[in-house]
TrEMBL record:
Protein name: ATP:glycerol 3-phosphotransferase
Record keywords, A-Z: ATP-binding, Kinase, Nucleotide-binding, Transferase
GO molecular function, one term: glycerol kinase activity
Organism, as annotated: Paractinoplanes tereljensis
Domain Carbohydrate kinase FGGY N-terminal: 6-235
Entry keyword annotation includes Kinase: yes
Keyword ATP-binding: yes
Length: 454
């Protein structure tokens, strides 16, 4: 790669961010554009594919405003994962809503396949769950049977280059990929009733992945040389080694480490190209704070301030708003607040909300067999109190990246062949009472149905 710049596009759940990165890995410009999210019914979370594309074009135009056209050598793309997109093969226009990764409307599809859950897990590396794309594809194709489907990276690659393709790491999150073979599984396609012709072609994570057409506006003519799922891109940016566990603190949380982990508590996925990784997904972390802020009529920042000056005093908030994901994988779990007394005040609830994020990450780290250190990133990681609680609950050091937007940075690094070590803030674990974790697990048990616990 020459000294020219790399544009990283990070298409996330609530916004699209763009970074312009030089050959040394330094961010020289950045911009963003919001993406609306809609909740038309309880458990439904959807977006508009056209609005997602528009946000990419707007953010890119803002980031490249005034930049000489020949200064950018390549584009790297990181995207939200598991969300399902459907579009018309002939017109190229969206043919239905984007079903977000939190969307639960395809739960009935999964329920109909419970007898095949072990097969699904063995082949795909993923538990049968409506979070993943396959059941969402089925729901969409039932309403638009001749359409094309894909994940957000597939949609953007198609819209920008005209090619119907999907990066292998994103493909591994669909629940239709044979995760060890790296190809679509005929057995899983049959189980979910997905025609192979509706799916994109699987591509590597980097290389010549397509050249952007005139539809891309300021991006026209640029090559896309890397595509990664957002969590995978953050892992790549950290340069994680053996014993490292990466934890991204966003709307939900992704806890990931390279290599396989025994047991079914976490997923087996593809990090990039042929590198396998273990991952535990948490449905609600930052969104728990957002919910409580809305409930109390304050801002998310105020929740952090309230928590900073309080103890939880035995109050636990289990954010099972749409069930619990890793390591429980319990769709029937409910949201629960326990330990309330007449003396409980909003400050205790705020502290319990912050602690719920750290407890859930600790649950996944425990399921992975522990960690040598936790590499943290994401918006909520800016909360020093959360990072210290995380170190205390897991008993291992937490290193928080000082650089924001790691998903975009990871895409830029892979697209440009850039290697740059990150700088971190360190949080060392302090002694803790084991009863703290036991009390949390008791609260989780109360949030789950007896059938799911057995």
């Amino acid at each position: 790669m020459s000294d020219r710049l790399v544009l990283a596009i990070d298409q996330g759940t609530s916004s699209t961010k763009c970074l312009l990165v030089d050959a040394a890995g330094a961010v020289v410009r950045e911009a963003s554009a919001p993406v609306p999210i809609r909740y038309p019914r309880p458990g439904w979370v959807e977006q508009d594919a056209g609005e997602i594309l528009d946000s990419v074009l707007v953010a890119a135009a803002r980031c490249l405003d005034g930049v000489p056209r020949g200064a950018v050598a390549a584009v790297g793309l990181s995207t939200q994962r598991e969300s399902a997109v459907v579009w018309d093969r002939h017109t190229g226009l969206p043919a239905g809503p984007v079903l977000g990764w939190q969307d639960q409307r395809a739960l009935a599809v999964c329920e109909g396949l419970r007898k095949d859950a072990e097969v699904v897990r063995a082949v795909s590396g993923l538990p049968l769950d409506p979070m993943f794309s396959a059941a969402k594809f089925r729901w969409l194709l039932d309403r638009t049977p001749s359409a094309a489907v894909g994940t957000v990276d597939s949609w953007l690659l198609f819209a920008l280059t005209g090619n119907h393709q999907i990066e292998v790491g994103n493909a591994s999150r669909t629940q239709l990929l044979d995760v060890r073979a790296g190809r679509w599984s005929e057995e899983l396609l049959d189980l979910f009733g997905i025609p192979a012709a509706a799916l994109p072609e699987i591509t590597p994570s980097n290389g010549e992945l397509g050249r952007i057409s005139e539809r891309g506006g300021v991006l026209a003519g640029l090559p896309i040389t890397a595509v990664l799922g957002d969590s995978h891109a953050a892992l790549y940016a950290h340069g994680a080694g053996e014993g490292d566990v990466k934890a991204t603190y966003g709307t939900g949380s992704s806890v990931m480490r390279l290599g396989e982990v025994a047991g079914d508590a976490v997923c087996l996925t593809i990090a990039w190209n042929d590198r396998l990784a273990a991952e535990g997904n948490i449905r609600s972390s930052g969104s728990t704070v957002a919910w409580l802020a809305d409930f109390l009529g304050v801002s998310a920042a105020q929740i952090g301030e309230m928590a900073r000056s309080a103890a939880s005093d035995g109050v636990h908030l289990v954010p099972g708003f749409g069930g619990l994901a890793a390591p429980w994988w319990d769709d029937t779990a409910v949201g629960l607040v326990s330990g309330l007394t007449l003396g409980t005040r909003p400050e205790q609830l705020a502290r319990a909300a912050i602690e719920s994020i750290a407890h859930q990450v600790a649950d996944v780290v425990d399921a992975m067999g522990g960690a040598g250190r936790i590499l943290a990133d994401g918006g909520a990681s800016e909360n020093d109190q959360l990072m210290q609680i995380q170190a205390d609950l897991t008993g291992v050091p937490v290193k928080r990246a000082r650089t924001a937007s790691l998903s975009a940075l990871g895409a830029a690094f892979l697209a440009g062949g850039i290697a740059r070590p990150l700088e971190y803030d360190d949080f060392e674990p302090r002694p803790r009472d084991p009863a703290v974790r036991h009390a949390w697990r008791d609260a989780v048990a109360r949030a789950r149905t007896p059938a799911a616990r057995s």
